[in-house]
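Replying to the earlier thread about multi-chain prediction with a worked example.

Input:
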Amino acid sequence: MSVLAAENLTLNLGGRRVLDAVSASFAPGRVTAVLGPNGAGKSTLLSCLAGLHTPDAGEVLVGGQPRAALGMRDLARQIGLLPQDADVHWDIDVATLVALGRYPHRARWGETETDRTAVVRAMAATDVTQFAARPMTALSGGERARVLLARVLAGEPQWLLADEPLANLDPAHQLDTLGCLRDVARGGAGVIVVLHDLNHAIRVADEVLLLYDGRIVAQGAPADVLTPERIAETYGVSSHIGTTPDGVRFIVTSHMAQR
Amino acid sequence: MSRSLRINLVLLAGIAAAMMLSLIAGKVWIPLDAWVAGDPRWPIIAELRLPRTLLAAMVGAALGLSGAAMQGYLRNPLADPGLFGVSSGAALGAVISLYFGYAAAPLLLPAFALTGAGITMAILALLVGRSGSIIVFTLAGVILSSVAGSMTALAISLAPTPFATSQIVTWLMGALTDRSWDDVTLALPLLALGCVLLAFTGRTLDALTLGESTARSMGVDPMRLQLLIVIGVALCVGASVATAGIIGFVGLIVPHLVRPFVGNRPSAVLLPSALAGALLLLVADSLVRALPTVSELRLGIAMSMLGGPFFLILLLRMRRRLA
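Result:
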C-alpha cells in the first residue's frame, strides 16, 4: 500500500535538535493533525516530509521507496506543501496563481485539458472561482489563504501537507477549509495538517500526532491522545473536555494557575 | 488571439519599421530608392548600417530578456542585468585592451571583453557554489561588480597617455558606431545561446513567485535555475558589452514597459521584453545618429538620460498607488 512514512527522522538546525528520532506513518484517505506547542517541530516535520530539509539521520519513505530515490519533480507530484505565511512576489491574478500548482505536472509548453480541469476543480473546492480574474493584492487575508490552498490542490497531490492553513480565516471559512481537507482525504489523498486549535483537530482528524520538543509524545485517535493530562504536559495548560448537546466534542483550555 | 500574442506581433511590426528607420537614418539620409547594389550609397547600407542595425536589435533583445529574467529570478523589479558583475567584468576586459593600446587590432577588444565576462562568470559561479541561494548570488554579484568597477577606475587613472584615458572613458559610455559584420558574427552565436538558455527559465521563474522554499517543494531545482540564469545572462551581457560597450537601463526599463500589457507573470514578460528591448535600442540608436550634434551622441549616454526620468515616473506612479 502507498504510505508516507518517517523513520527515525532526526534533524539539527542551528545547533538545536529540532526533530529527535521521529517515526510515524501516514495512510492515504486519512487526515492526520500534527499538534504541539510552538517550537515542537511541527513545521519542520512537514518540511522534512516534503523534501525541503535533508534529515541528519533517518529517512522519509514515499510509497515504500526512500525519498532520495525519487526525483524532485516526482516527489512534487506526489506531495503538495502549503507553507505557513506564503509569499506572493508578483501581483498576478488568482487563476494564474492557482495554475502554478500544475508546475510539477505540466509539459514544457502549454497546458493540457487535464491541467485546466484540475485548476477549475481546485478553485471550486476552495470557493475562490468568483475571484479568478482578481489580482492577488485585491484579496482579503482569508481569501488569499483559500487561493493558496487552491494552488496546492491544483497539483492533485497524493499527500497534502498543510501548515496552519486556518491561521487567517474567520470561523465560517475555518470550518469550510476543514471540510475541504476532509473532502481531499475522502478523495483518497492523505492529509497531514499542522493545527493550533485542538477543537479543529478533534473535528477534522482521524488521527493525531502530538509533538513536544522534537519528539512524538503520542499518536492515535484524537479522543485517546488529547487527554487533560497530555494537554497539561505538552501545552502547559489545564483543559476541560466536554460534548455539545448535538454530540460535538470540545476542549476549553485555561492557565494552570487558575486550577 | 491572446493578449500576449497580440503584443508580440505589434512589437515585431515595430521592430521591422524601426529597422527600416535605422537603415535610412543618419548623418547621411539614404532613401529607399538608393538600396540597390549599383548605387554609390549602397556600401553605407551594406557595410555600415546593416550590421549596426542588426547589432542594435540583437543587443537590445538580449539586454531586455536578461533584465526580465533577472527581475523574475530576484523577484525584484529594480534588478538589472548589470547587477551581478558580468558587465563590469566585460568592461574591465575591454578597458585593459584599451589601456595597452590593443584596440587598434580588429576583434582584440571584444575578445578581451568576453574573457573578462567569462572570468567574472566563473568567479561568480565559484562564489555561489552549490548553495543555489539567491541572497548569496546577489551579494557575490555586487562584490564582483564593485571590484571590477574599481579596477576600471584604476586603469583610467593610471592610463599611459591622455589619449588612452579618453578612449577608455568614451568606450565605457557604450555605442554602436562603426561596427562591422565581424562584430555581428562574433556576437550572434553567443547572444542566441544566452537567449535560448534564458527562455528555458520561464516556468520556473513563475514557480519562484511563491518564494524559494515553496518553489522547491513544487519540484524546482534551484541549482539548475541558477546555472541557467548565470550562464544565460553572462552570455547575453558579456557579448553585448563586448560589441557595444555598457548600455545601461535597457534591461531595467523594458520589463516595466511591457508588464502593463502582458501582466506580471515572469514568463509572460520574457519574450515581449526581448522584443521591446530590440525596438527601444533600434529607435534610440537611430535617434542618436539623426541628432544634429557635432560628434555623435553616445548611445549609452542617451539611454541613461532616458533612464532617470523613467524612474521618476515609476516612483510617482508607485507613490500614487500607495496613497
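Chain A has two domains: 4-226, 227-259.

Feel free to reuse this layout for your own posts.
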